[in-house]
Amino acid sequence: MNSLSFPGLRTLAILASIALTSTSSAKPDPSPTASTIWVTATEQKFNFLQPWEKTAPQRKRGIGTLIEGNRLVIGADLIANTTFIELERPIDGAKTTGKVIARDYEANLAIVVPVENAEEFFKNNTPIEITDNLAVGDNVAIWQLEAEGSPVITSGVINRAEIGRYTVPHRSFLRFNVRIGLENKTGGYSLPVIHGGKLAGVLLTYNSDEQVARVIPGQILSQFLTDLEDGNYQGFPNLGIATVQLTDDQFRHYLGLERSGDGVFVSTIEPGSCADEVGIKVGDVLTSMDGRPIDRRGNYTDEAFGKLGFAHLISSRAVGDKVKIDLIRDGKALQVEATLKHKSPSEYIVDPFLFDRGPNFIMAGGLLFQELTRDYLTSFRDWEKNAPFNLQYVLANPESVLDENDDPSGRKVVFLSYAIPTPATIGYERIRGKIIDKVNGKRITRIEDLASALLTPVDGIHHIEFLDNSADIFIDDQMVQTVNKRMQQSGMSQLQRIER
Amino acid sequence: MRSNHPLFKFSNMKPSARLLHTCLLSGALALSVGPNLVTAQVVAETTESVTDILPSAAYESVIKINNSSQVADYRTPWNPGNFSGGSGTGFLVGENRFLTNAHVVSNSRRLLVTKHGSPREIEARIVAVAHDCDLALLEIVDKEDYKSFFGNVSKLAIGTVPKLESEVRVIGYPVGGERISVTRGVVSRIDFSTYSHSQTDQHLVVQIDAAINPGNSGGPVLQKDKVVGVAFQGLTSADNTGYIIPTPVIKRFLKDVEDGSYDHYVDLAIDEFPLMNPAQRKALGLPNDDRGMLVVSVMKNGSCDGVLEDGDVLMSIDGFPVFSNGKVKIDGESVNMHEVVERKFAGDKVKMEFLRNGEKQSATATLKQFLPADMYRVVYGVRPRFVTVAGLVFQPLDRNVMASHSLSDMDARNIIADYVSEELYTEWPEIVVLTEILPDAINTDVTGLEDLIVDEVNGTKIRSLQQLYDALYKPMSTGKLPEFTVIKCIGAPRPIVFESDRILAAHQRIRQQYGVSNDYFLDYENYEVPVAKPTEESSDDTVILPDEPELLEVGE
Asked: Which pTM value belongs to this model?
């Protein structure tokens, strides 16, 4: 959802006249005008193919909903890669600069506050409570604002709860589908979803053809805010397994299971995950969690939502909680107790997404070394066809780069992206997307290794070895320094980025 | 590697240029001929003379070829294929020997040729066909027919490579009319380029600005009274570009088939890297003199296996110095060093000088075709091989199967990409893919597992279609069926499991429902190629056209 336009001059005049009339001292009831603030964020993305650059800035506008503590709840996609945030009171057009104090890109939620004088800025606004007492069939309203600040309230119905993706690819959460006909108004991001005068969710996307809004439910919102309370945000836990349905009678028979029984087949275990630590194995059959039976399609029966994917039984809990998991292994039942944890995005071998900082890279005399991220691959036009296939394979099978005694934590993939033609890179112009194994004899497991390896050329020459069996390449250190200097003089703003 | 295998990096499956076969096939495609009609002029009775003999003298030697073909459908490999047809051109080069393009006669069931000015269609057959350079040699079946129609016709002589900017005539039977057509153009470029017929092989081509249109394929391109090329392909994205197969390729083909069979191009089967970087040369202890190419890997079972080693620096080949950019100088032209091999035949020897651990050495390699690379080639004229069981269809992987099924699975793509470069072929003669599932009660829960590579059946590794057949069908014939038949695919989240007695029960039902006429087809031995002189070799490479969405073929 991307509707962005800004009020014209005529509208501003009207806003001014409204401001004169709204000076009552008692706070009004929650309403679009009383409880929402326009949030305009300027986003500047990083260029993953030329990582020393940022792309042209873009403005996005959404609606922040005021909750207790003078905080605004918004969708995290609104403030990703932001350079400047402006808050605007719809009622009188007053503006102030905002800042992000919490964000979770997996759950696509963030908290924004005014940089200063929050109390003063929100003095005529009313915070709204959050509800997670929601079920399929409930009526909800979605709040929007006209350009001059007057409310637009549209009602709809929650017609489905499911487990699905938000905005990043590697996690799934509880999600509502709301049947509703929304108009296109200024500031389309993170519209508040209201039930019984309380905040029941935040709009994720809206499909105008099908008239279906996807909504981050109040449940996820409450969990996010509860997690924030002690100042030590942990994130939503995950188990680290993939499963397939067990609807195939012949396969069930082969596994020694009852034909009509429950359970799903564990097909993948992520190394170092909860599931791995507690000893769940590929081939196990997962039959229940905390006493809730999991059916042959991988669903349990939720009191409020009916059939729901078992992932919700994990992500709705807190990091550190214990969950009893029933399994069948080789025809025998067993139970394990997992202590839930959260794998943060930066712990993945290939970062599933990168916001608010650019990709790590080192430019050495025209050789561009980068750390592999999913965003690098998706930056290619028609990426599944055009991005280097060997790197796509690593995205799908990150363990494939690990040595037997490699520690997967902290492991990244450093690759030679391409060689800019320079006096140092003669003969290397055709190299693309090759994963680095060693530089100057030292194993490269992350960009920091490369930075230190490049300090020790042998006889003034750097020796680069690749993971596949292609030819080693060599570059002259003196030449690298000369070319680097020239690149800086000609306007390359930075020659490396090493950030965690 | 000599050949440009676009599939080594499977993501680049699209051929580099949109090449178009100027002959061929299928009424369904006839509409795309439209734009070409403008340039197809029939100027048969021209009186202008640029030749020493009367220009029309050559017309007698040019034939129109009508091909009734049958094209296998790799989605339903048990079917004999779709009937279609097309026409092209050919010309007399020797005693009852007509030269044309391989693609004009591919997948042929019946070939009829017509002489200029004659209404009579005469039956012909293939003597030899080379799909890797798109050439074929035909003969008239009935010797008497040949004598009466062509006894007094002069054989066209093969000349040399035409000079840039020189004028050529293209003679043939393109779309736009029934009678012979002549167009003129000048030679605009001489280059190496991909031959779209196999989509893999690169050879010398001559680009001319004369219109080459559907039906022109296989026709002679003349300069004076000599053949300087065979018209064979055009470009869809550009005007006035026609491509002809030049004489070195023609002569090589004619020489190769002198013994009655075609032996294919040979390949050094090495992977190399230029040695142009001063730091690289210094590190490898080489002087800065622009000589030598790094041998990165020597393919097992290739021509250079046991002759060169990984890490050697190749200094000369057949006496031609190899420069650091991988080029050699032949006749004053700087060309890729593999061109030295391009002109040679299977069994020929090539002497190489190289540096090994800084020491100068020399050795001789005996050249041969590099068979593993065949997986990346389009094949013609063969019946698709397959095995079915319980509605599952398995096929050995080749370019035709790749083109008719979308092998988008990561693991499958990875194995295909590594098949040659990582030498997987040494222990994996054939990659067997589960290409299709014909829905039936027995397999209704086997979903999302299509287009994966088979790894094992009942614990036995599957490395060829025959092994798969043995693992699935042998237990049936002995009556010693295991309780379960377990098929594991690479990258699959779970194995495919059947209760073996249910396989037997489902067998007839699935065959009938889906019209599967055979349970399997394993090899060519039992299969009679209905056209052509049935030599052992030609049974391997005659006939057939796959569904090739990238290959734009234009029929008439």
From this structure: 0.85
